[in-house]
Amino acid sequence: MIGVVMSANSDPDAALMLRVKQGDVAAFEELVEKYQQPVMNLLSRSLGDPAEAEDLAQNVFVQVFKSARRYRPTAKFSTWLFTIARNLCLNELRRRSRHPADSLDATFPDNEDQPQRQVQDSGVCLPTDALMHGELERLIEQSLAELPETQRTAILLFREEEMSYEEIAQVLGTSLSATKSLIHRGRETLKLKLKPYLQSGIWHNR
Amino acid sequence: MNGSDSNPWIETGLRHEPTAEEQAQLRAFIKANPNLATRVAEELALNRLLRQLRDPPLPSNFTARVLAALPSPAQVGFRARWARWWRWGHGLGWAPKSALAGLILSLGLLSYLEYQHHERVELARSVTKISGVTTLVSLDVLRDFDAINRLSQVPTKVDDDLLEALK
């Protein structure tokens, strides 16, 4: 009980989740507002389809609400949330592998020259810069998508604020050393694929 | 710089632009390990690329859509009760599980036997009823059934008119 109280005190999100457990929808809304973008980032880059990722992100939060009664703040809320997100994402990837024709928006090798999705550009830059950045961004997204699931998830979670190696290990269900190794190997693969861009200094001024 | 080493500049550099203090530490590291300078530069460049990836767009009504998709408290309560039973079942040892399974099977078997008994009683009752019915008319009578039946369908007005004329 002491551990539960301490965890809820040290993690404000866990405290919010305890309120959700009591049926406080406003607390749930606060959690959705805070985590919708990080969850969407993970799902969109794992599935490669923003529309599908959006639906799944919605399911993740509905699942969080449904599971609120079972929630025990023994770990950080974000760890629990991303574990749910990853499990649902893996289910979706498995479903896709069983029914490949279902995902009509998935990219096909023949369509590689077409943009995967529309991304709002908040910055102001020249058309050539925008094109270059767009191309590079797509290449990075593609390189990330081609990583094995565990390596990609580890790197994406690592990129999110406040996720430590230990928490990522909990989400992935691996040991601490295995998690570090996953991130290291993922980064090595990315460096190989993006080598020309790492040396050219492109994007330095963004 | 292998996977199990902790690399502070990688850890922080992936999440935010290195601070002045972190950059100073980095310069000191490169000075002490000049052979790793290229490697470190690559790591930093990769951090920069990953950090600057733009967030996928989210609709402004995302939260509202999530809230609209939430189940009602009654649904949540029903699921929670069901989940509690399910967990209770999972928490039992093999002996109580076997006893429970045996009980359910016995109840099932008893219900089936009771149903069969009921069916037999109903059948016997029907047979008794039929045996009380007197013998049916012979088939010869039924042979002209259609003709006889049609006779009864003759319009009665014609009969009435005929009777009137005869009077």
Overview of this protein structure:
The complex is a heterodimer of chains A (about 210) and B (about 170). Chain A is an all-alpha fold. Chain A has two domains: about 1-100, Rna Polymerase Sigma Factor, Chain: A, CATH 1.10.1740; about 125-205, Arc Repressor Mutant, subunit A. Helices cover about 70% and strands about 0% of the residues of chain A. Chain A has helices at about 1-10, 10-20, 25-45, 50-65, 75-100, 125-145, 150-160, 165-170, 175-195, 195-200. The longest helix of chain A is centred in the N-terminal third of the chain and has 23 residues, at about 25-45. Chain B has a domain at about 1-70. Chain B has helices at about 10-15, 20-30, 35-50, 60-70, 75-90, 95-130, 140-145, 145-150, 155-165. The radius of gyration of chain B is 46 Å and the shape is elongated. The termini of chain B are far apart. Helix content of chain B is about 70%, strand content about 0%. By secondary structure, chain B is mostly helical. The mean pLDDT of chain B is about 80. The chains are: A mainly alpha (about 210), B mainly alpha (about 170). Chains A and B meet through α3, α4, α6, α7 and α9 of A and α3, α4 and α5 of B.
Q: What's the total helix number of chain A?
A: 10
- Number of structurally distinct domains of chain A: 2
What does the average pLDDT of chain B come to? Answer: 81
The whole-angstrom Rg of chain B is 46 Å
Order of helices and strands of chain B: HHHHHHHHH
CATH superfamily of the largest domain in chain A: RNA polymerase sigma factor, region 2, helix turn helix motif
Largest sheet of chain B: none
The percent range for helix content of chain A is: 55-70%
CATH fold category name of the largest domain in chain A:
Rna Polymerase Sigma Factor, Chain: A
What structural class do helix, strand and pairing data of chain B support? mainly alpha
Percentage of residues assigned to helices of chain B: over 70%
How does the major sheet of chain A shape up? none
- What structural category characterises the helix and strand content of chain A? mainly alpha
Number of helices of chain B: 9
Instruction: Count the beta strands of chain B.
Output: 0
Q: What's the order of the H and E elements of chain A?
A: HHHHHHHHHH
